[in-house]
Write a structure and sequence with these properties.
There is one protein chain. By secondary structure, this protein is an all-alpha fold. 77% of the residues lie in helices and 0% in strands.
């Protein structure tokens, strides 16, 4: 019994259970946004067939899943140094956890392989976009005043969610984002709530972070680049 208990409480088992819980939460948040009346209106669902609606839902889910990964590898995540190895293991388990969740729902193997590839592609894309997001934000803010440490901290704080929101919006709209700022704002708000919740949990529920995040999110640049 002792060995079973030790195994169940091992870091690997804990990371696997946490990854499963995180991807289930991501799917829930994506579904809530997908079903929201305002999102469907702004996305023009009345003109879209079921295949296209399903594609949009898939892009939403992937954005939330990838955002989890971006949070776990954020350099400014305030966790003890010894916790970093655990986060690395957790990050590596997230894509598999979502695919495993689909498998339990009866999704066929050929479709699971497509999901694995899609998550990998979007991660590579959004992770790369982080550099452009950070550079653009620093350029915009530095035009008004010299950047101080608080400014740099706030910019860094918002990079993961901005990168995920910008990329998701681009794919939902199939690249045709002109005049669709309201759809972007709605997507950004939903992703931001999920992002803040994950970071607060990982950082121990610090109220100071929550206040800082809310101030930063209110000042976030809304239009897509």
């Amino acid at each position: 019994m002792a060995s079973v208990r030790a195994q169940s409480e091992s870091p690997g088992h804990m990371a696997g259970a946490t990854a499963a819980a995180l991807v289930q939460a991501s799917a829930h948040h994506a579904f809530e946004l997908f079903k929201a009346r305002e999102f469907r209106r702004l996305a023009g669902f009345d003109t879209l067939d079921q295949v296209e609606q399903d594609r949009i839902f898939n892009e939403l889910v992937v954005a939330y899943v990838v955002l989890i990964i971006l949070v776990l590898e954020a350099p400014d995540l305030r966790v003890p140094p010894e916790f970093r190895d655990y986060l690395t293991s957790l990050k590596e388990m997230v894509p598999k956890a979502y695919v495993d969740n689909l498998r339990t729902l009866g999704v066929e193997s050929e479709h699971l392989r497509v999901w694995e590839k899609l998550i990998s592609l979007r991660y590579e894309e959004y992770a790369k976009d982080r550099h452009e997001v950070r550079s653009a934000a620093m350029h915009l803010e530095s035009r008004e005043k010299a950047l101080d440490l608080d400014d740099l901290s706030r910019i860094q704080l918002l990079v993961p969610v901005q990168a995920a929101a910008i990329g998701c919006h681009h794919h939902v709209c199939r690249g045709d984002t002109d005049g669709r700022d309201e759809l972007f704002k709605l997507t950004l708000r939903s992703l931001s709530r999920f992002y803040a919740d994950i970071r607060i949990r990982l950082e121990g529920g610090k109220i100071t972070f929550l206040m800082r995040a809310r101030r930063a999110l209110r000042r976030m640049i809304s239009p897509r680049r």
